[in-house]
Amino acid sequence: MTSKQKLILFLISCEPGIRDIYSMVKINDRADFPSKMSEDLKPLLDNNLIFVSQNFDNGTPNKYTITDNGKEYLDSNFNDTEIIEYIKTLDNPDFLLRLTQTYIDKKNGL
């Protein structure tokens, strides 16, 4: 799994998290355009790490929720330093870096 996919999974898992497609695209496009979210969400869905928890009226996915498999995957494969270093390689990492660091600090009880 790529660092970007791990980051997306992590952000979906957080509270309140980034779960809706509009916010995901907006935040990721701002950091590194184009974000190509569907390419990164597909492996998460295919590996049963997330599921579509809400659709738009037209049937397309709107919100995602992490599965128990996804939580287990993050517990054993998420590395704070790796994700922060990945974000720093993006074109405009500032907002995504601050957001992710806030969630990492919350996860670590800081």
What structural category characterises the helix and strand content? mainly alpha
Query: How can the largest sheet be summarized?
Result: 2 strands, antiparallel
**Which runs of at least 5 residues are low in confidence (pLDDT < 50)?**
none
Secondary-structure element series: HHHEEHHH
The Cα radius of gyration reads: 13 Å
Number of strands: 2
Fraction in beta strands: 5-15%
| Separation, N- and C-terminal Cα atoms | 27 Å
Helix content: 55-70%
Strand order of the biggest β-sheet: 1-2
Shape: globular
Briefly, what is this?
The chain is mainly α.
Outline the secondary-structure elements.
Blueprint: H1 3-13, H2 21-31, H3 37-46, E1 50-55, E2 61-66, H4 68-77, H5 80-88, H6 94-107
Antiparallel strand pairs: 1-2
Helix pairs in contact: 1-3, 1-4, 1-5, 5-6
